[in-house]
Amino acid sequence: MKKLTVLTVLPLLCLFSGMLYAQKPTITGRLVTTQQAPLTYATITLQKAADSSFVSAILSDTTGRFAITAPAAGSYVLKVSTMGYKTHKTAPFTVSPEKPGHDHGDILISQDSRSLGEVSVTAMRPTLIQKADRMVLNVEGTAMASGNSAYTVLGRAPGVFIDQQGNIQLNGRPGVTVMLDGKLTYLSAADLRNLLESMPAENIKNIEIITNPSAKYDAEGASGILNINLKKNDLQGINGSISAGYIYNGRQHAWNTGATLNFKKGRFNSFANLDAARRVGGREATFTRIFYSPLNTTYFDQTAVGNFASVGPPRVRLGSDYSIDKNHLIGFVAGYNRNSAKSDFLTETLIGAAPNNPGQFIDADNVLENTYRNFTTNLHYAGKLDTAGSSLSADLDYVSIANRGASWTSNYFTNLLVPEPVITEFLYSDTPNDFDIYSGKIDYTRALSKSAKFETGGRISSVVTAADSKFYFNNGGLTPDPKRSNEFNYRENIYAAYINFQGTLSPKLNVQAGLRAEQTDSRGESPTTGQVTDRSYLNLFPSVFLQHKVTPNYDINYSYSRRLQRPNYGNLNPFIFYRDPYTYIEGNPYLRPQYAHSLSVTQVFKKTYNLVLSYQLTNDIISELLRIDPTTNTTIYYNGNVNTGHDVSLSGNGPIKIAKNWDTSNTLYFAYTDLNLENGNGPQRNRQFTYMAQSNHTVGLLKDIRMELNLLYRGPGVSGLYRVKAMNRVDLGFKKSFLNKKLDLSVNAPDIFKSYRLRFDSTINGNINNFDQYFRSRTIGASLRYNFSKGQKVDIRKSSAVEEVNRT
């Protein structure tokens, strides 16, 4: 009751405090550089004109604007300071009851000539800035960025967790959209990981962590958006880096090499990324199942080893922008990737009517070869329509993805009770599939005042995918198996539009509210079976954000949003994927989207520490389910919609400085999950209190050697029907720079104790499934990166359809 009273009264206090401050003098303005670019995150200090005594301070926003409140009428000056620029003081000005506000307009800030050339920034700790709808992690010029990849830095952002298979979670929840510079990447999870691993973190300016995105963003993504903003190349001429690395996981060797090139001349600003790699991985697993039926009980014990390796021509990603004038820009980004992968899944299975008393042994080898091709292109325009902040932007995207895969399965059955010949079964499958994605969007922003703006826009996307999966018996020749072969065609069109408002109710109270509408029309068709599934649905996605700046060092933010998660296209395909004689994976053409209502209260202390209380209600949860046939000892896995899920969590993030050269970034997470599951096995309930602790340490050692130690512990949790056991890992790394910090040598050893195991189980109608898998996350690796530049030196400042591709 006490907590409910606090949560009820607190918003009223926020509004009341806003009314109290509404009449206090407000000083506004905009910071710009000599190149007319906005000066972001600079410190503006309000001082008394008489004695320069401190009154208050604030940071400029991403547009260079600021609004600071004077406590009373009087004469004041503003002091502006930031790294790489000269400290600037305004002339004295007066505010009074007759003139309660003062607008400085554009304040020109000159760069500091002493900052020209090489500047060494030695900040150990990244800074956090909490806004109404997002948290901004500034990593530019910090130890987190130096010598690391973009993928590593993303995994260490507050609340971000990446599992062994590269799946990203935000605050313990899956379903994350990752963007680059606010643009959709159109890459699958695996290819996005490859791109970020080849990208030096020194290229990153900041990472925006948007747990409840506004109406401007696609509604896809149940847990939010991670937007990686890259540093804009301001260096005339050529600069970039080249790198090479080697990794060994105890069984497989891997290597990577790449280059990044930036070129700027006149109005053109271009880049090119080139990387090639041999990427490997695998797992060792045990699966234990017990099947109960009225006639008998069957014990199923299986060991498995999986391996994969992929290699291909260099991946290319390039782009160029052209400034028509200082207010209008056009450009393009394109990428091409092709690789060939080979994987195997080798199992040995014992089946019997009693524990440790098998009657049959099955040796099953499944080998898969696949060629993957991905082509993406983006055309974009951005324009400033006036000096008040109105803007217009547009994007056109096209993505083509093709997979050409085939698998060979060899099964050997041995009777352990009666001597008889080994029975063999050989199978072959051909599984090509293609995706074509077209998308266009437009966004318009209208500045209503210096502290308010209105946004509107729309987006249209079309996805066409085709798969023709053919299955054959391969005993002396290919004989088609019509029961497991299937052709599947799918088309989906999405039409979206939104409105969004941002404004200031008072100097201490900001609000943002919006509404997004998305119409989805889809058709799934299987010519093989004649099955057709048509869907057409319209959804509304409201969002509301309230930011209350209680004091200069304490903010409270309230947010609500509704979002959805659409099914993966492959999961809609009813094709049956064969893993071994007793295990199948099949698609579900009747799979529906899941919907989530998310609420959160975020407290931010000293612009660095945050405490987040959140609640999420999810309907029609998409979850992996399993269907068990005890008469044949067969388990069939598929994705289905279950009832509802409730998730309450409390998380805290913040740095702790242990010593002068020893910084830490820490996350604590507590959650209670309650899932109500309705499927073919009857109603079930899966509940669990879970917790997570993560601590990243950066330690400066002798001779400029930097050590990084990452500690992670995750308590037991739940995922659909499964209960997941606790896991932990320890990662260790060392970095050293040479040649005036142009050459970086890194040595990394993730999961040094081999303790990060994925163990989970489920019990359905008395039937037991226990899984224990290790994904070879323990590796040892070394990498070299050389940074170069040739051109004029400048100062160093501190500071639209990804959902469709993720579903492929």
UniProtKB/TrEMBL annotation:
Domain Outer membrane protein beta-barrel span(s) in chain numbering: 384-786
- GO CC terms in record: cell outer membrane
Location of this chain's protein in the cell: Cell outer membrane
Where would you say this protein principally sits, based on its record? membrane
- SUPFAM superfamilies xref list: Carboxypeptidase regulatory domain-like, Porins
UniProt keyword annotations, A-Z: Cell outer membrane, Membrane, Receptor, Signal
Leader sequence residues: 1-22
**Which PANTHER family does this one have?**
PLUG DOMAIN-CONTAINING PROTEIN, TONB-DEPENDENT RECEPTOR-LIKE BETA-BARREL DOMAIN-CONTAINING PROTEIN
UniProt name for this protein = Outer membrane receptor proteins, mostly Fe transport
